[in-house]
Amino acid sequence: MELREKLRKLRTGRGLSQQELADGIFVSRSAVAKWENGLGLPSDASREALAEFFGVPAADLRTEEPEAVILEKNRKLRRRTVSASTVTAILLLVLVCLNSWQSRQSARLRESMGQMDLRMEREFEGARVLLSGEFREAAYTPLLARELEQLQTAALYGYYFDGFSGGDAQWCPLSQALGELNDPAIFALLTEEDCGTIADFLESHSYRNDPELTKSDVAPILDRVEAVLAEYHSAG
Questions:
Q1: Gap between the Cα atoms of 55 and 49, Å rounded
Q2: Which residue has the higher pLDDT, 38 or 196?
């Protein structure tokens, strides 16, 4: 029986922990653990102390395992420890690099979204201002047709970019409703008063309104467009 087995049997037979044994012979707990794991041998003085503590001959606490074998076990354990530490360090480095990459990607994405939102705002505002003047003239023109399409596109993009980014989600259904008027025959059914109401609304509300638009704000225009469409389809 090897020393590690003898020592563990003696200790557990007394119902002792490694710390209690270590305290009894004035060594560290790690020294006892190393002996019991076959990773080290007690010095002659420690062997004598163990023999006296357990009341056994010191000769019984000699190992049949060559010291060279024990030293090789220690070398292998150190190599495994170093290898595990290296792997851990590499993993930590990879995680740091990944986190840095993700942070850069997130920053680029936020910048791109901000640029896209700014572009949509410019296109929306350009179409809104021109349309207010076109509706004021109460005449269907190529410019009015083009700006109605641009207003629809910008409002739709704005709606899907963070709930219209400006916070005015009602611009989306409103711009779609105005887009239904993008036909000479349908537009002709609008009265000058209808055109004036739409022009006033476009002049007084922007991409980023404060307070935000509500359904009640856009309801009169939506209702009037619906009535015009019903009139057009009934006539057809």
A1: 10
A2: 196
